[in-house]
Amino acid sequence: MTISVKAYANADDVLIAWQPDSWSSNWVGFQLERRNDTTQQVTIIANRIPPQPGQGPVQPTGVSSAASPIRRCIWTDHGAVATDSVSYRVTAMKAAGKGAFIPDAPSASAWTAPVVAAGDAGGGMEAYFNRGTLMSQIVSRFVNGDVSDKSLHDFLNNLKTPGFQARLYLAGDALHEILRFLHDADRRGSSIHAAIYEMNDRELVDALKPFGKRGHVLLGNGSATEPWVAQELAAAQLEVKHRDLSHHGRSSPSVHNKFVVESDASGRNAGRVLTDQRRG
Questions:
Q1: What is the pTM of this model?
Q2: CA-CA distance, 147 to 138, in Å (whole number)?
Q3: Residue 208 pLDDT > 80, yes or no?
């Protein structure tokens, strides 16, 4: 029996998918391994599900897929370090009695072609992602299973704090790259023109302030945009304009798909664009 496996990488993680050409009735799941192709170090990927039904939640670090086989044919590895070249191998697992498992050695797949977790998409384009706030399992772990109104309210407030662990995780690479884009543009003395749908993040506002008169911001009146944002940007001498996105006012689609354009100090010659293309 042969298992075919492929790996696909972006800046944030690696997606691994596999398909056996036939199935043994003895198989109960799969062990997934990652190899660093530079050091040749092999790591067994951790599962997030306990080995047996009803055993309760696992530790935040998970359980080795050798001890708790993965019961699916697709997995996302968030542990691949950016710039590392990695490969993956899948081995079917069999029950060994008393809750233990053993590999079905002949089923082991070949190692995948090496992939690198990076944002470079070619052609001068890069793509980076956040991890949202609707990942209920990871959010549940961040609040230690306490999903009361008070706990979730406190969690949302803490997400505003730079350096908060959950903020760093949920922001993925996107926040870092947005801040780097702005800092690099300011260091070069560039101008920026930004259209922003909603904005209430202190770290992003502070990254815009150094542009002063070189900064031009168009703010939508989305429900999350708070008054202090425009007030502080204007106080820092950025040009701030507003667009009403409601059906009752003069709606403008220009801020619905968010973007920032970096140009030279005169504002005439664009050099880079930062945009969010989640919406068509």
A1: 0.77
A2: 12
A3: yes
Model pLDDT, residue 253: 58
Q: What are phi and psi of 192, to 5 degrees?
A: -130, 145
What Cα–Cα distance (Å) separates residue 135 from each residue in 41, 138, 139?
30, 6, 6
Each residue of 230-257: pLDDT tens digit? 999 999 999 999 876 655 555 555 556 6
Map residue 239 onto helix, strand or coil.
Answer: strand
For residues 188 and 62, give the distance between their C-alpha atoms in angstroms, rounded to a whole number: 44
- What are the structure tokens assigned to 198, written together? 């909603």
**Could you give the count of Cα atoms lying within 13 Å of 91 in the half-sphere of its Cβ?**
18
| Distance, first Cα to last Cα, the chain | 43
Where in the chain are the domains? 3-117, 186-275
Name the DSSP letter for residue 59. Answer: P
Instruction: State residue 52's pLDDT score.
Output: 81
- DSSP element (H, E) containing 243: strand 239-243
Residue showing tokens 């492929």: 6
Whether domain 3-117 has CATH 2.60.40.10: the reply is yes
Closest CA to 3 of 84, 104, 152: 104
Report the candidate in 271, 267, 260 with the shortest Cα–Cα distance to residue 174: 260
How many Å is the Cα radius of gyration of the chain? 24
How far apart (Å, rounded) are the C-alpha atoms in residues 276 and 280? 10
